[in-house]
Amino acid sequence: MTIRRMGHNSCTICGGRLQRIHRTFRERLSSMAKLRCSECARITSVPRRFTFLFGKESRCLSCGTYSVQRLVRRDHVDRLSTHPFSIISYLKGGRVHWCPFCRLQFYDRRPPLPKAAAIRRTAEEI
Prior knowledge:
By secondary structure, this protein is α+β, with helices and mostly antiparallel strands. It has 2 domains: 45 residues, no CATH class; 76 residues, no CATH class. It is 23% helix and 23% strand. The chain is built from 4 helices and 7 strands, in the order αβαββββαββα. Strands 4-6-7-5 form a 4-stranded mixed beta sheet. 16% of the residues are buried.
């Protein structure tokens, strides 16, 4: 996945161009890329996709958005995730959640964020 596809091609502070820089072995385990701004020299890192599984709030397993909804029961029209995290959550008594963007259903024990907070948190990541 390129940096341009991840949406991290300009600095969030000054708008300068971001360039990839060397990562240590430890940084390679936790991040996909380490970037330095050519204008202000600010360094940022792009976390790996699996890190959102360890958060306090529920996120979509496919697209990573916070805008998920808890369902009363499974809807057989939309697809159900076969991700190992979803299966383990189901076995531990997790409830079914639904992502309106990719229409994926998955099981999770964590609560979803309220709608306003989810929109704000997703906007901060962009």
